[in-house]
Amino acid sequence: MTTAAESASKAAGKAVSKSGLAYDWLHEQIVAGDLPPGARLVLSQVAEKLDVSVVPVREAVRRLEAEGLVTFEKNVGATVAGIDPVEYLYTMQTLSLVEGAATALSAPAVGPADIARAREVNARMRECLHDFDPVQFTALNREFHSVLFEHCPNPHILDLVHRGWNRLKALRGSTFSYVPERAAESVEEHEQLLSLIERGAPTAEVELAARRHRSATLDAYLARTGESPGFPTL
Amino acid sequence: MTTAAESASKAAGKAVSKSGLAYDWLHEQIVAGDLPPGARLVLSQVAEKLDVSVVPVREAVRRLEAEGLVTFEKNVGATVAGIDPVEYLYTMQTLSLVEGAATALSAPAVGPADIARAREVNARMRECLHDFDPVQFTALNREFHSVLFEHCPNPHILDLVHRGWNRLKALRGSTFSYVPERAAESVEEHEQLLSLIERGAPTAEVELAARRHRSATLDAYLARTGESPGFPTL
DNA sequence: TATACGAAAATCGTATACGAAGTCTCGGGG
DNA sequence: CCCCGAGACTTCGTATACGATTTTCGTATA
Q1: What is the pLDDT of residue B232?
Q2: Which domains does chain B have, with CATH numbers?
Q3: How far, CA to CA in Å, does B139 sit from each of A122, A174, B108, B152, B166?
Q4: ipTM of the assembly?
Q5: Cβ B160–A160 below 8 Å, yes or no?
């Protein structure tokens, strides 16, 4: 018999312990959107599905809670977190902060090969613009930015960036995932960002540009919904 | 009989579950420095000391791991994290990033009463300068900055600030905790920071000042040890 | 003496079992 | 018809037990 656990293990190829297996499986399900926000996670059910006991599942859920991907209420249960609009604002603001820094800190280590790769990805994003393919566009967008921030030498900041992206990705399918008005602008800003990095612009300048690039999406979202942030912006 | 668990519970007054109890106790021990970096945490021993079983302790340790306060190696055990100098650099850099943002975002909500309180704390820091009392100075320093960033409306950023401070506090007693050359400067910069906030300076300006205030301590540390960061700074 | 090997101890990882707390349902009363 | 309470049901929280893995230490051998 082939359990869901085994296929998850095969897919990720990195689960070493059973708690790690449960974590990987749940993380994948949530980030991929198969477990939508608000979905309930019953420990015993997950345990049975993965053919493990509840203890490792419990541990996995607590880890996901620490990442902000699920909320865990005492004696009630775990639910996939995320649909609160204000939470979206917080996440975007935090991501704009840490991603801006990560991109700036990465910049000196970004070589011509990385630049070329990013340009290629950006070109494909342009195509998605014509084809009206938001899903692919979103995926490419993450790939583009990954190239720019993955060389960040500070692992803490890099980890925060990953967490922010994962939180956002978990919201795909919800209202916030894609702001059409921003898509075209975004592709242009990507080009400007690459130019800055290519010419070795000062760290502060790259940081500001990268931060603005993201917070502009937040602004567009706010403009579209007609909401006011209700708190200061960076 | 009075167990260590009960006294910890009484001290914090917030432990609801046993895993929460174990977490609180370990967190307090680590942050207070009673469990120095490198100390080994054996689950069964901690469990016995707190008069609970190993399962809640295990969960507490994983939570602490997520915060970066302990490292947990498979089939080996948990140790209190922290003495690596490069790790100190990463932590300080991250803290300078998030604390700068938190302070800037707090600024509009900081009222005259807060300002007055901060001034009072800063005055006491001046006294510590004369009395050569680094421990008290460090404590007051945290209190001072708490007043400035605790109004941060974004809970994610605020949480990151708390984590950073806790990590640093856990290192007290190690080489990094106190940079004498910075103490005097620091008190002056506090005054400048208060002036900025008092007059309602732009968010970006407050952020930069708060960030610089912290990263300057990092620079002083590097200057003293003669080390080079080996990676870009913000 | 240094090193390789093996057994024993220590410690973690997980399964199972039971108790505690919360939630839902259904029946009775207003 | 609506409100409310007792019971059962669901789900988490923790304890205990056992297996798996690593480390340690003694011993024999080159």
Answers
A1: 81
A2: 4-80 (1.10.10.10), 85-225 (1.20.120.530)
A3: 49, 44, 25, 21, 12
A4: 0.89
A5: yes
